[in-house]
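In response to a reviewer's request, we include the raw inputs and outputs for one of the modeled complexes. The two entities were modeled together in a single run.
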Amino acid sequence: MADTAISEKKKTIAFGKKERKLLTDPINDDNPITVQVLGICSALAVTTGMKNAAVMAVAVIFVCTFSNVITSLFRKSIPKQVRMIVQLVIIATLVTVVELTLKAYAFESYKQLSVFIGLIITNCIIMGRLEAFAMANRPYESALDGLGNGIGYGLILLIVAFFREFFGKGEIFGAKIIGATSEYAINTTESTLFGWYQGNNLMVLFPSAMFVIAVLIWAHRAWNTKLVDVS
Amino acid sequence: MHSTSSIIRFVIVMTSIVALILAALQNGLKARHDRNESLYSKKATLAAVSNEIDGDFSKLTDADIQNIFDNQIVQSVIDASGKIYSEEELLEMGVKNGKAENLDLAKEWKKPAEERLRPVYKFTNNSGEDFYILYTRGKGLWDEIWGNIALKSDINTVAGVSFDHKAETPGLGAEIKENKSWVRQFIGKKIYDGLELASITVRKGGAKDPNHEVDGISGATITADGVTAMLETGLEAYRPYLETLKN
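The model returned the following structure tokens for the whole complex.
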């Protein structure tokens, strides 16, 4: 009896088909940005450079995963009448932890992301996952779901940031790849490819993020045809 | 269904735990936060003379910045009348170590202009030339902007500037900080026109006066006007001090 109970418990902890689906669905079929069109605001704001996008992605993955786990752990004791407030407090606490940590260990990124770290609190992806998933599922599944959604969001962020940084400033992760070096550095001796390329300032501005995300949604649907007939 | 009293209990326990966690974290990281803030503003000060510092300025490490600050900078604090404050006076006024780098500039700028303490950093480059780095603060489009302006020893020619901002729009107003080719336009401009303090104007549509104007930033007119106003009031406040330096 005891043996079967343990093996059953082991089985539920394992990483099976269902668990894989929890993790990969938000990355492809149910992507928070390109399919659910959530979290667009921060996707516009922090994708001017890949470094910022990467920091933001890590921050969101962290907040999304742990808020999911914590909410799921307390899902039975959280009073239903105040559950939204409790969820917000959990998210806000984790975001503040991220903010304080960045300020101590990645000050440049902290300065550049400024208010957008704080605005993770209002990122509807996270609140949405808590309400829709973590309140009704066990911590393990919730962790996978949060991780998947965070990665799905971060992946799109990085792709958008790549196009915007590369064509806008001629850089990848802050390293000059194409275009003249003199524009964004003083006293530098680095040389680059295509010295004639003039950074396209439109790509740095917010509208370009709209275009890039729109094209991404199009490309995503063209590639993954089962998304097309969703409506 | 939970009863009202159990909900209140839950909320109180939850907030207490959260408050404890955050307070502990904030306290534990405070030293690092302060160090980062101080290095950041030191780097911004030195950015105004980045042309005079050997090597790639953007690649300087925290230790390099501290090193330059310790060895090549002389700090002083003045007020709008040009009075230079001694270390003891500053200590008495609550400035840590009596040093300009420990002035709380955001707080100083909340005081009326006559009572404001302003930092002056004298930087000596490797070939022995002196530069005076002045600080000023003003309003951009969304929130405060501030900057450092470095003058050569003739107290007229600009050796460089560095600007920063709290919340200007990335790609537009934020270009005053990010776009180095725009910032570099200030190098070689003059702040005096004869004996008049003429300051430097950011001109929409392109600079006309080669000595006192720089090109505007398209899409960031209000931030650029803020820079113009900030430079004008800032330099005006330093004028008594600059006059004594000149003589």
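As requested, we also summarize the result in words. Residues 30-230 of chain A form one domain. The radius of gyration of chain A is 20 Å.
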